[in-house]
Write a structure and sequence with these properties.
By secondary structure, this protein is an all-alpha fold. Helices cover about 80% and strands about 0% of the residues. The radius of gyration is 20 Å and the shape is globular. GO terms for molecular function: transmembrane transporter activity.
């Protein structure tokens, strides 16, 4: 898989220049990050509920806390990257992720689980906005040079991330036959390799990226209504996407009596992105504005929830019972392909000069807060004893409501 991505990054059309070595490194970085992360995360919900014995609302809270400690603190990592450059921030994030995975593998008390999950999340809050903001900055330079659309570069970042998300769950499912601790230790080992590779390859200084002071940036950001509107709409999308780790495992368990099929559904999602993201981005870029692309993506996600909600009262089990879940994964993934690269491509147009890291981080921080609140509510909703279709139909309303939050221009 890594060699396929590498060849894809090096391949170019006759009229397009090749991506710079820095862009290729950062995009492959996303691939490596997601292998280690997704080897662990898809199986965390079951581990917390079964091995640790947490109630449904607490599992939802911990998953939301993990997302908030990651997405919610992206603004800190982004500001640090603007101030000190991406190299020290990325390396420190890798160190914290290694420590967090090792701790999670042995955690059995609630406080220890929460501590390790916070550490894992904050690690990503350091390295992810540093990588994403620099890819976005390089993508704008790529576009300004006439090489092509910035959205294409950001779509490549999404493809690399999903390729890692494809390999990760399969690796995790294989290791889970030993135990969850082994999964966590292998995930930590992957980040040890990432740390060593980036200590060697990541440049000390990137031309055109100078340090800026912390003071003044947050005030202007909080007055930027168009940017905040984009953040809220993206947060609603992320809350819907987070149901891959909360609502989907519950549906798979109901349909088959185990979570064996969960890894294959994650693989299906990742394979769709790896194979279809670039053609979809190209097709949409020729026909839809940024706003219309996000509207179409949010509507597809809403339909995915509605499919499961409509089928749930039938009580199908076995292979037939997995069909609604598979439909949900496909529609959610198609929606993701429309929403995620476009939202990232929109940020440089709304960000203050020199503070792209801060704005990239804030996009995830606001959405992380939404996920923290929404995940606890979702966990309660799934355990509420309401008619089986109701939780999924309520979740379908979330991306629909987000459409009204999008900036008009």
């Amino acid at each position: 898989m890594a060699s396929l991505i590498s060849r894809g990054l090096c391949r170019k059309a006759p009229d397009q220049p090749r991506l710079s070595p820095l862009l290729r490194l950062l995009i492959l970085t996303q691939f490596a990050f997601n292998i280690g992360f997704f080897a662990v995360l898809p199986f965390l919900s079951e581990h917390l509920g079964q091995a640790v014995g947490m109630a449904g609302w607490m599992v939802g809270f911990v998953l939301g806390l993990r997302t908030f400690s990651q997405q919610g603190l992206f603004v800190v990592g982004g500001a640090l990257a603007d101030r000190y450059g991406i190299r020290p921030v990325v390396l420190m994030g890798c160190v914290l992720r290694i420590a967090g995975f090792v701790w999670l593998g042995s955690a059995r008390e609630t406080w220890a689980v929460i501590g390790s999950v916070l550490l894992i999340g904050f690690a990503a809050a350091l390295f992810s906005p540093a990588v994403e903001s620099e890819v976005a900055r390089q993508a704008v330079l790529w576009e300004e040079s006439g090489a092509g659309s910035r959205t294409r570069v950001l779509a490549l970042l999404t493809v690399a991330g999903q390729a890692g998300a494809f390999v990760g769950p399969l690796l995790g499912a294989l290791l889970l036959s030993v135990d969850f601790r082994t999964v966590c230790l292998v995930g930590a080992g992957i980040f040890v390799l990432v740390l060593a590779g980036h200590a060697w390859l990541l440049p000390q200084h990137i031309p055109g990226r100078g340090g800026v002071k912390f003071r003044g940036g947050m005030g202007k950001l909080l007055r930027n209504r168009r940017f905040l509107a984009l953040c809220c709409a993206y947060g609603a999308y992320l809350l819907a996407y987070n149901q891959l780790y909360l609502a989907l495992p519950d549906e798979v368990e109901r349909a088959t009596g185990s979570q064996t099929a969960l890894a294959w559904l994650f693989a299906l999602s990742s394979l769709l992105v790896v194979t279809a993201q670039l053609p979809v981005t190209r097709w949409v870029g020729e026909r839809l504005t940024l706003r219309r692309s996000m509207v179409a993506g949010l509507l597809l996600i809403a339909v995915g929830f509605a499919v499961v909600g409509a089928a749930r009262p039938a009580g199908w089990t076995g292979a037939a019972g997995l069909l609604p879940a598979a439909g949900f994964v496909v529609l959610l993934t198609l929606g993701q392909m429309l929403v995620a690269p476009v939202a990232r491509a929109w940020v440089p147009d709304l960000a203050e000069d020199g503070r792209l890291g801060l704005y990239t981080g804030a996009l995830s921080s606001v959405s992380g807060l939404i996920v923290l609140i929404g995940s606890s509510a979702t966990g309660t909703l799934l355990d509420s004893g309401l008619p089986e279709a109701v939780p999924w139909l309520v979740l379908a309303a979330v991306p629909v409501a987000a459409i009204g939050l999008l900036p008009r221009r």
